[in-house]
Amino acid sequence: MDANYALFARVVAEGSLSAAARSLGISPAMVSKRLARLEDRLGTQLLHRTTRRIALTEAGAELHREVAEILVRIGDIEARLHKAGRSPAGRLRVTAPTSFGRLHIAPHLPEFLALYPEVQLEIDLSDEYVDLLARQVHVAIRIATAPGGEFIARRLADNRRVLCAAPAYCAAHGAPQSVAELARHRLIAADGQLPWRLAAGSRNAELAGPSCVRTNSSELIRELALGGVGVALRSLWDVGDALADGRLVRILPEWEGSADVGIYAVHPRGRRVPPAAQVFAEFLRDRLARLDAGA
């Protein structure tokens, strides 16, 4: 396949000409020149583009769907051709939530890379939804209910979530004594995190928003909770330290987030998982077993 098809897919995956140029180690001008050459060859415009942003044309979107699938198949073929018993090698593209990646993936990466020195790791930390096929992601770490449909998910660890607030918030607004009373308090959650599904033994409840502050950043919600802005539903891996030292306190401690939510390694259904992705998920599962589930 013409290398310019792979370049086109990389531009779409990175979101801009300049980002694609950096990842490929060439100049933005060269990226633009090669894209123009591909468009001339096909006789149609593929992208509306500047150095900062790109948008697919209708023809470009159609081509990208086909090219992305071909590149995935090529990756699968390359993986199958590795000799039996050979250490995993090659490009491994991973995406994970920002806070979780920083706190509980990044510290283990030196060990992983020492164990598998031939793996070329690319890791993207983002709280935004990532299209795994379009971005050519091999494995996504997601904290959610088990994804179904077009995805296959492997549960790596449980994800206990608790209601919490700063002592200053409780002093100013009082501590709610029931879920119904909690609904009248200031709730804070990142986009997509509400409604909250809660459980207390056999009892279940659902708490709708809105959040008193809108943001796409889960890390910002943690800081707002610490600052006394409102009540948050947070994972213990994220706020365990703040609960232990008293910067946050549990609200309605008998209630927690639904146990259906876990930490998963996800990949598209129908796509062979490269050996590097398999060992990464297994490695991470072993390390996450050490997460403190207390509080």
TrEMBL record:
Statement: the UniProt record of this protein carries the keyword Transcription regulation: yes
PROSITE patterns per UniProt: HTH_LYSR (PS50931)
Keyword Transcription regulation: yes
Boundaries of every HTH lysR-type domain copy: 1-57
Record's keyword terms, sorted: DNA-binding, Transcription, Transcription regulation
Pfam families linked to this entry: HTH_1 (PF00126), LysR_substrate (PF03466)
Database matches in PANTHER family: HTH-TYPE TRANSCRIPTIONAL ACTIVATOR TTDR-RELATED, HTH-TYPE TRANSCRIPTIONAL REGULATOR
UniProt similarity note: Belongs to the LysR transcriptional regulatory family.
Protein's recorded name: LysR family transcriptional regulator
